[in-house]
Each structure stands twice: as C-alpha cells, then as structure tokens.
Design goal:
The structure is a single chain. With 173 residues, the protein is an alpha+beta fold. The protein has one domain: Cyclic phosphodiesterase (Cyclic Phosphodiesterase, Chain: A), CATH 3.90.1140.10. The chain contains four helices and six strands. The strands form two sheets. Strands 3-1-5-6 form a four-stranded antiparallel sheet, covered by helices on one side. Strands 2-4 form a two-stranded antiparallel ribbon.
Length: 173
C-alpha cells in the first residue's frame, strides 16, 4: 500500500440479525454439520445482512461517511411485503455513498444471509446431502428480521474468521 494513502479499513454497511432470527437459523445450520469437511458454516452470532460492501477505504473517508449517511436512513421493518422498502433503502444508501465519492457496486441487490461457504468442490454424495438439506429447509419461514438501525462495520481479516466491529450506527426514523 502506498505510504501517501495511509491506513485503509475494509468496511461495509449492514443490518444485524436479531437473536430470535439467529435461533431460528440454528437448526438449518446444524443440518449442514454432515458436510463439515466441505462447507464452513458461518456462526449465527456473526451473521448480518450486508447492504453495501465498500472495500478498503482510507480512514478519513470512513470517518466522513457517518455525517453523510445519517440523514439517509429513514426506513423500518422487513418482511415479504417490506422487501421493496429494503431494496429502496439499499439504493438510497448507495446514492449517498456515491455523493460522498465512494464507489458502489453496480449490480442488482439480492438480500441474503450467507449461511456457509463451500471450501472445496463437493463429491457426489455431498452434493446429494446438500440437495436434501436445501429441499428440507429451502421454503420455510424462519421469522421476521426487525430492523432498527443500519451499521457501518469494519471487517478485519487475518488468522481465523473475520473480526467485525461497529464504527457507526444509524437509527431508522
């Protein structure tokens, strides 16, 4: 990293998931245990709904984001009928980021929680177990995701799983 750029932080905007939703997710995640050699399951307490991944930004730019994003966050709730409002919130935040000079990914937003990551190609028996798991859990309602704030988060990589810290919180109005 060039000296002139100074320290950079890996940051993103996210919604934390509630303890109730974490509890609902535990059984499906436990169902992936038989694929432990091939799939790394994300612990529920580390899950979040990413609205925008911003990449590595200079610290002064990260500090400037709080004042630029706070007036944008005017939204509440999420459920099937509230999905368009979540997509609109994500878009409004993207507009605010662009106005702050932060590049934003230009692709369709597909809200999701990353439950696990495939570590290596799956063998045929593992693919079958994953298909069975998907059939069992794919269409169930795991509950609501109550949203009261959006967080500006820092992700620190290095030995082991990423470490997350909240840099700023923006209460929904």
């Amino acid at each position: 990293m060039p000296e002139a750029e100074g320290e950079r932080w890996r940051v993103f905007l996210a919604i934390e998931i509630s303890p109730a939703l974490q509890a609902s997710l535990q059984r499906p995640l436990d169902g992936l245990a038989s694929l432990g050699e091939s799939i790394r399951v994300n612990p529920v307490e580390r899950m979040h709904l990413t609205l925008h991944f911003l990449g590595h930004l200079p610290v002064p730019r990260v500090e400037d984001l709080s004042s630029r994003l706070a007036p944008i966050v005017v939204w509440v709730g999420i459920s099937g009928t509230e999905l368009p409002r979540l997509v609109a919130l994500q878009g409004d935040l993207g507009d605010g980021l662009r106005q702050a000079g932060v590049p934003v990914e230009d692709r369709r937003f597909r809200p999701h929680l990353t439950l696990a990551r495939v570590q290596r190609p799956l063998r045929a028996p593992e693919r079958r177990r994953l298909q069975e798991w998907s059939s069992a859990w794919g269409d169930i309602d795991l509950g609501e995701l109550p949203v009261t704030e959006v967080r500006l988060m820092r992700s620190q990589l290095g030995g082991g799983p990423p470490r997350y810290s909240t840099l700023a919180s923006f209460a929904l109005k």
